[in-house]
Amino acid sequence: MIRVLVVDDDALALELHSAYVGRVPGFEVVGQAAGARAALTAITDPDRSIDLVLLDMTMPDGTGLDVARRVRAIGSGVDIIAVTAVRDAATVRAAVSIGVVQYLIKPFAFAAFRERLEAYRAYVEGLNRAAGDATQSEVDALLGSLRTVAAPTLPKGLSDETLRAVAARVRTAAGAVSSTEVGESEGMSRVTARRYLEHLADAGRVRREPRYGGQGRPEITYAWVRG
Description:
This protein is of the alpha/beta class. It is 45% helix and 21% strand. It contains nine helices and ten strands. Keywords: Activator, Cytoplasm, DNA-binding, Phosphoprotein, Transcription, Transcription regulation, Two-component regulatory system.
């Protein structure tokens, strides 16, 4: 089993990503950390024997890059997959330079998460099979296993452009918003807006919140999950 530490300062994301790990054969969560200091403590704990860290890039007490640099400075060879909403080129470049093996951008669905972990597992299995000096083809195959990940696909009828617009609407809202409010602001029906909002909720990027008022069942609203 590949032993995984999940690091995220958002409690919902921490639990969601841990649950995702549990759904991928060959992986087990052996720890959770809600900040940079807690992550370093867990990684350096010899009793944990962590193989892989799923590392957020933005935390109140330090960045994921800080954690990764410290880990490398103490000589740890633990593998790191960045799981973050941070997508600027400088951060990605810095992550690659310190040995981050995968970079998964939030929001994402479980399928995209599973593909990254399965690609990493193939890489580990290839390393375990290797013996002595590797040939060029073996090296190419090992490195290629980390990069042969299919692009995640949206459910039928959803588009990337509209998903980004809906996500931006929720992210910049002062509070939770309903599918009706999103539909009116983005020029789409309430039903269509709700499909996109539910997709974001399933991916862990928004949370559902009931809005009470008047008689009958409460209205479901959506609030952005920070981090």
